[in-house]
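Ops channel
N.P.: pipeline sanity check, posting one input/output pair.
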């Protein structure tokens, strides 16, 4: 019998167990454990259950098999925790670019041809300059529409003229990045205008989660046992990636988070397993 579930958008759709299975496999769960989790979830699903609740069930069952996979599977939820303002998400996007060989500045003011603009993330290397506008949401519901894409593209066009004049040898790109999704008309406009947009599941070969998973650049918020104040302290100390934890000794983690050495050692161990150290 087909089970109807409620998606984050509010849309009612058929439950697709292959999507759940693929998400578990992407998290690093081995096929046998992933299949077992899917079977357990199916037994617990109720008609019109939300995808958020289904995710939580899968997370609960996966925890029995592989802690590192549980952290990876928490990625979408972790991105929603990079708040409450948009600034932590901007810093996180900056770290993604830094770890891909760019020099970055977060929250810088630049002069356009007509007016000045604040650029969330300015990334550059010898070949290109990327101007990034970040749009953060703390809820998976709702998508960014074409008005956002139009506005961001216009700003980038105004900035592009003086930057290209100063750096004629470099390519200038405008990006719009969100932790959630874009509407179809926003995607259509971006593809037509040359604005690069990056979101959850888009573009298919280089979406936000694939950028993260490629180099294991997971945010610290994948750890469910960190409270809001601890997350704020870490981001304020520029400790944004689990990779940062993996490279710290447990005494430093203990000091920054004001936790016991035993808990700090456990965090470091999880971080190293997650990041493949």
């Amino acid at each position: 019998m087909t089970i109807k579930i409620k998606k984050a958008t509010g849309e009612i759709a058929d439950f697709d167990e292959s999507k759940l299975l693929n998400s578990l496999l992407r998290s690093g769960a081995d096929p046998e454990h992933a299949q077992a989790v899917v079977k357990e979830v199916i037994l617990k699903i109720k008609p019109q259950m939300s995808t958020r609740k289904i995710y939580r069930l899968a997370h609960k069952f996966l925890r029995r098999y592989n802690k590192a996979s549980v952290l990876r599977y928490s990625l979408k939820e972790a991105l929603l925790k990079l708040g409450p303002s948009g600034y932590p998400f901007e810093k996180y996007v900056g770290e993604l670019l830094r770890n891909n060989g760019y020099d970055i500045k977060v929250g810088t003011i630049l002069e356009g041809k007509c007016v000045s603009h604040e650029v969330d993330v300015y990334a550059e290397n010898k070949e290109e300059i990327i101007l990034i506008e970040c749009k953060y949401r703390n809820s998976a519901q709702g998508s960014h529409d074409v008005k956002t894409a139009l506005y961001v593209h216009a700003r980038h066009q105004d900035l592009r003229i003086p930057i290209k004049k100063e750096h004629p040898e470099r390519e200038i790109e405008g990006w719009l990045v969100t932790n959630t999704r874009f509407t179809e008309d926003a995607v259509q406009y971006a593809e037509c205008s040359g604005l690069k947009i990056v979101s959850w599941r888009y573009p298919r070969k280089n979406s936000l989660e694939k950028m993260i998973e490629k180099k294991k650049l997971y945010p610290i918020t994948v750890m469910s046992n960190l409270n809001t104040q601890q997350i704020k302290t870490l981001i304020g100390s520029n400790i944004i990636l689990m990779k940062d934890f993996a490279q710290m000794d447990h005494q430093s983690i203990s000091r920054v988070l004001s936790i016991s050495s035993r808990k700090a050692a456990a965090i470091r161990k999880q971080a190293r397993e997650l990041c493949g150290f």
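N.P.: looks fine end to end. The chain is about 50% helix and 15% strand.
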